[in-house]
Design brief:
With about 425 residues, the chain is of the alpha/beta class. It has 15 helices and 12 strands.
């Protein structure tokens, strides 16, 4: 291999490192994020109600705060989709126009990557926000029998038993009986009031009302409503140079009677076909997609590579009973080296063809609560303590450096 080719391989960059920031009230401030070595931020203006327009002044203020800290707002996470759009009912014309207006204001301030999800009613869901690991650190965990306990005994959703196995129902009843009143209240609050970046103070009655508004929805209807949303906003996004990136469902299967439609290669391919346009893309989340045993993540990166606009990297450890917990970023059930290798290959392709914004932005998603973060008072969004995510970023940075070094050595032979 000649010297110029070797030099090219040695200078191929890693992916763009970023952290999530929840805004001025985030207990993990921007100054700390910069100390991790990250250069980018995934962030949103959480104080604005879902569906309302983000004014250009609001966008400029948020962006200025990030840039003043020496960082760059590389991705909006996220511009929430109003629930009326997901249900297909209500003043849809207003919500579509508001979404387009927000995209225009973001683009006018130079922010051109927007992540969103289409999970009805609830966002991501776990049943244990502080699962203690053998080393003393804590992580997020999902147990199907605990979800059954919430669904059947706390929420008391009509027909809920049909969604669980007899074993899960029995375990749910036994476990529910072990909890005192305070433990039940803490458990319920952990499930129903974990919307990223905001606290709504929801009650069980609020959740019942939300589910009632979605009772008419099945997977086909939800897909049709997503197709309508894309038809309404993708042309504007294309015109102004914004890329939309849908986030997979978390967890990637139906919960509480709600359909989930962004869970595997088949469903993602169908969504990308709904608007076959580069502006309609994917946020590739290894944590969400890795929970399904049938998802081949490296193959999915290869399949959707040109339409992957943002990346969340984390790993879950799947368990035989359907439970999973969030493992270390290089541990668990996700073959992280294989996934990152494919992502770097796609980034190299984009760089070689001179594509705009060719460097893939990623962030370490979630993280363990560890070290002195364990003793800090509540306030951090579960999964988003500083030290655990910094550990994840360091591990992923080292993985990319190792993959680049191995690539260089292989091509030098």
């Amino acid at each position: 291999m000649n010297d110029s080719a070797s030099a090219a391989f040695s200078t191929r960059p890693a992916m763009l490192e970023a952290f999530r920031w929840f805004g001025p009230a985030d207990p993990v401030p921007l100054a700390w994020l910069r100390q991790t070595g990250a250069t980018g931020v995934f962030s949103a203006i959480h104080r604005i109600p879902y569906g309302e327009v983000w004014s250009r002044a609001d966008v400029r203020e948020h962006k200025t705060a990030i840039e003043t800290a020496g960082l760059r707002w590389v991705a909006v996470e996220s511009v929430p989709v109003h629930e009326d759009i997901k249900t297909g009912r209500g003043d849809l014309a207003r919500w579509f126009e508001n979404y387009r207006a927000t995209l225009r204001n973001l683009a006018a301030e130079g922010v051109r990557l927007v992540i969103y999800n289409f999970m009805p009613a609830l966002d991501w869901l776990r049943t244990d926000m502080r699962h203690r690991l053998p080393d003393g650190s804590e992580c997020l965990r999902f147990d199907p029998h605990r979800l059954a306990a919430f669904d059947i005994h706390a929420l008391q959703r009509k027909g809920a038993e049909a969604d669980y196995t007899p074993e899960q129902i029995a375990r749910a009843a036994d476990w529910w009986q072990t909890l005192g009143d305070t433990e039940r209240e803490t458990f319920i609050a952990g499930i129903i009031d974990v919307f990223p970046g905001c606290k709504w103070g929801l009650s069980l009655g609020d959740i019942r009302d939300m589910l009632a508004r979605h009772a008419h929805l099945d997977a086909a209807a939800l897909r049709a409503n997503l197709a309508r949303f894309l038809a309404e906003v993708v042309p504007t996004a294309e015109q102004i140079g914004v890329r939309l990136a849908i986030h997979p469902d978390d967890p990637p299967f139906p919960v509480l009677g709600l359909p989930r439609i962004v869970s595997d290669a088949e469903s993602i391919a169908a969504i990308l076909r709904m608007a076959d346009n580069p502006a309609n893309g994917l946020c590739f989340c290894t944590g969400s997609l890795g929970v399904r045993t049938t998802n081949d993540l490296p193959a999915m990166v290869r399949q959707f590579a040109p339409r992957i606009h943002a990346v969340h990297l984390r790993s879950s450890q799947r368990l035989p009973d359907g439970a999973f917990y969030e493992a270390g970023h290089l541990e668990g059930s996700v073959d992280m080296p294989a996934v990152v290798r494919e992502l770097l290959a796609e980034q190299d392709r984009r760089q070689s063809t001179g594509e705009r914004d060719w460097q893939l932005p990623f962030r370490p998603d979630h993280g363990r609560v560890m070290l002195d973060d364990l003793g800090k008072p509540p306030g951090v969004t579960p999964g988003y303590s500083c030290i655990g995510r910094m550990r994840g970023l360091a591990e992923l940075r080292g993985l990319m450096a190792g993959l680049r070094a191995a690539e260089k050595d292989s091509n030098a032979q």
